[in-house]
Design brief:
heterodimer; A: 237 residues; alpha+beta; Jelly Rolls; six-stranded antiparallel beta sheet; 5 helices; 12 strands; B: 10 helices; 0% strand
Chain lengths: 237, 213
């Protein structure tokens, strides 16, 4: 199976900025969070961008909060809230104690297939999704992402299969979850995030060995550009 | 590297007791970031209400200001500000000054609350205890620079940015617009928006280095 390796395809910095600022479509944010789970370098970058947000936040001219709202909140602190750290759910603290319990260690082969933010959207498991066969070697399942204008799908490609050459009507993000594919931009493996803009025209081929599973987020239907593939357009929505 | 994945209630600030934080304070007294961080830790460790009231007075007006910049009216912004501050109280123990300054931490809480309220969606985020998380291969997180210092250096670095770059950054954070939406609404070519943002971020990156240059 997949071994832990660091991603080689990353989103551009302005894309991470959109994510850190919270100015990104929720489906694109999901693809980004998927990549971040696999990519310590981009996590550091997002932490830096959030710090920029924090510094700008500190500069904002204060908007006075009414005394009533302040008093109401301070009174609510009694309201059945228990902030004791011992009882809070596992917090994102830096691990230094080997005695922590309840957290499974990273699986030696790369951990669970889906990062948690994605697993939360997938719900009951991959096989419970409404898979739809796009061609004999490609299946896809739409994912419901609340408030998303972009659409999110899981796409499963048989080993060695090629997706017909296509061009995008808008931007497209592909996060690889298993297997891999190769296109003009190089080899993509688990953890990689490929971002294609409107003009990119590519023909991905899944690697041999195992199914290639990707989270694909895009804005608009793709258009097939190969001469013989045009008739396929109605199928590849 | 599995040590970096061992998270839980027994780790982080909680297990180390308060003394370490106060020793740190003596080293660099009087810094705003340090003071806020110490207040956060007082809330986390002792559920210190007086410390929280001080934090409220310092942070809540900025949270409200942030929410109003993003188009919420004052009454709604005030209501959401209370919710943000309640999360600050409840999750104080997960604040870790090595990972983020107080301003940054509260900014991310307010950002997520705003997305939740305005878009009725969520901001999907990584979870540090996700078993799928791939840890950094080198430098243990403990050896990282104290992220609380970043904000102070950043404030100075932002002040030095060319106006056009600083303005794009503010639009990114406070106008709920992606860089491509900013390009569309401002009439600037997308390439110009991208290159200005990248220039700004390259300059600001200096602030994250251990020794400011």
């Amino acid at each position: 199976m997949t071994q832990i390796s660091l991603p080689t395809h990353h989103p551009a910095e302005e894309h991470l900025l959109d994510y850190a600022a919270g100015a990104i479509d929720p489906a694109a944010a999901l693809a980004t969070a998927t990549h971040l789970t696999f990519c310590p370098a981009c996590r550091d970058r997002v932490a830096e961008l959030e710090a920029i947000g924090g510094a700008l936040f500190d500069e904002l001219p204060p908007a006075p909060v009414s005394a009533g709202a302040r008093a109401a909140l301070l009174a609510r602190l009694d309201d059945g809230i228990d902030p004791r750290p011992e009882t809070r759910p596992a917090a994102p603290a830096v691990g230094r104690s080997p005695t922590d319990s309840g957290v499974p260690p990273a699986a030696p082969e790369g951990g669970p297939l889906l990062p948690r933010p994605l697993a939360a959207v997938v719900g009951g498991g991959l096989e419970t999704l409404p898979w739809r066969r796009v061609s004999w070697n490609v299946e896809e399942a739409a994912l419901p992402v609340a408030a998303a204008a972009m659409r999110a799908r899981l796409v499963r490609i048989k080993p060695g299969a090629a997706i017909p050459r296509h061009r995008h009507g808008g931007s497209e993000m592909v996060a690889v979850l298993a297997g891999g594919f190769v296109d003009a931009f190089g080899a993509h493996r688990r953890g990689d995030l490929a971002v294609h803009d409107e003009d990119s025209d590519h023909k991905p081929v899944a690697q041999a060995g195992e199914d290639c599973l990707c989270l694909v987020v895009d804005e608009a239907p793709v258009r097939l550009t190969g001469f013989f593939a045009r008739w396929l357009n109605p199928f590849l929505r | 590297m599995t040590a970096a994945l061992a998270y839980g209630p027994a780790s982080g600030l909680v297990g180390r007791g308060p003394h370490r934080q106060y020793r740190r304070m003596e080293r660099r007294p009087g810094e705003v970031g340090e003071e806020l961080a110490a207040l956060m830790e007082a809330v986390a460790l002792r559920h210190d209400r007086a410390a929280f009231a001080t934090l409220f007075d310092r942070l809540a007006p900025r949270v409200k200001s942030y929410l109003m910049r993003l188009g919420l009216d004052a009454a709604v912004a005030e209501e959401l500000t209370q919710e943000v501050m309640l999360i600050v109280w409840r999750r104080a123990a997960s604040f870790d000054r090595r990972l983020a300054g107080v301003g940054t931490w509260v900014f991310t809480i307010a950002r997520n609350k705003r997305i939740d309220a305005l878009r009725r969606g969520a901001h999907p985020e990584i979870e540090r205890d996700d078993p799928a998380l791939v840890p950094a291969p080198e430098a243990a997180p403990d050896e990282r620079t104290d992220a609380g210092q970043w904000e102070r250096r950043l404030a100075a670095a932002i002040a030095e940015l060319p106006q056009e770059q600083a303005s794009l950054l503010r639009q990114s954070f406070f106008d709920d617009r992606s860089h491509s939406e900013i390009a569309r609404s401002s009439g600037l070519p997308l390439g110009t928006v991208k290159s200005r943002l990248r220039l700004a971020m390259a300059r600001l990156r200096q602030a994250f280095k251990d020794e400011p240059r």
